[in-house]
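Newbie here. two chains, one complex. Structure please?
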Amino acid sequence: MLKFLLAVDGSDVSNKAVLDFIKLLDWYKETPEIHLVNVQHPLHGNAPMLIDKVRINEYHQEKGMKELQAARETMNKAGANYQFHIIVGDPAEMILRYGSEKQCDQTILGPRKLGAVKGLLLGSVASKVMQLSTIPVLLMKS
Amino acid sequence: MDIANPQFWVAVLQIIAIDIVLGGDNAVVIALACRRLPQKQRNQGIFWGVFGAIALRVILVSFALTLLAISFLKIIGALLLIWIGVKLLQPEPENGGHEINASTTLLGAIKTIIIADAIMSVDNVIAIAGAAKDSIGLVVFGLLVSVPIIVWSSKFVMKLMDRFPIVITIGAGLLGWIAGDMAITDTVTREWVNVNASFLHWLSPVCGVLVIIMIGKWLAARALKKRMPIVDLANDTDKL
């Protein structure tokens, strides 16, 4: 079965990308299995030393569920075949690793709109994924 | 140092940067420690935690400048700053973490908060005192800046560091700079450096920066090399 990784960060652009992608599902001969992947930034500094792992995970989980909510509603409404995942780490790196390790067939994401200068200075998760991905990447431009 | 002196403004910027990097953390830990408490206790916990963080800084600051005049204490402070800077660059351990304070009781939260406040106030005050270079006015300024960061803007600070990880690197490097400066202005070293090796005034801070960035990045890279399998926190596997 086709396995798609759909990156979700809860932003408007990302939620719009999910909405747009659902409409493209007819493009595919078989119904793909969609994996909503949400990546949470790790905590740095003193927090990991002082707070136990269980509670830090709960914190990431709660934030992740919030960011996934709109995308999940869209999926439910469309009756799509999907799973969701919350992963802690660098967003671009985790999306890349998830895609290759779980043998996904395609990564889909909605690139954040940065101006020319900002885009040049910062790069975005999307541009890093595009450059380094070993599987096809679909950018949902809107 | 007076307002017309460019060194004064450099110190001001340094102090603000230190407060951002080291102060935002404190509020995050307090909030995390209180997460599982019932609403009323949680608000109390957060309030007293923040109060404690600020109170401890006030107390420590009033001692800091006197303490730093004692022989060897600046050198110890410099070593401590190097350690803090290196620690700042380390990523969240993937399955290390701290397993002791798993209790969801008020007492457990209080314990965590007290430890956190103590450690982070010491971090913060040593760094500020180092940057302020014996100016009590600047130390108090540093204290005043850290208060709103702890109370209101920890979320903003966290977002800033997530979006621009370079902020953390700059912060850590800055601690190295201050550490290098402290090491050569201790009462034991000051005279000798001024007479024999005034080039150390710029070389020592530069070495401090390099030491922190190199050790910190090296340790972080080593931690990342042991790549853990991806951990999924969502637990959605039974759905399909």
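Moderator note: Chain A has a mean pLDDT of 87. The longest helix of chain A spans residues 53-78. Thread marked as resolved.
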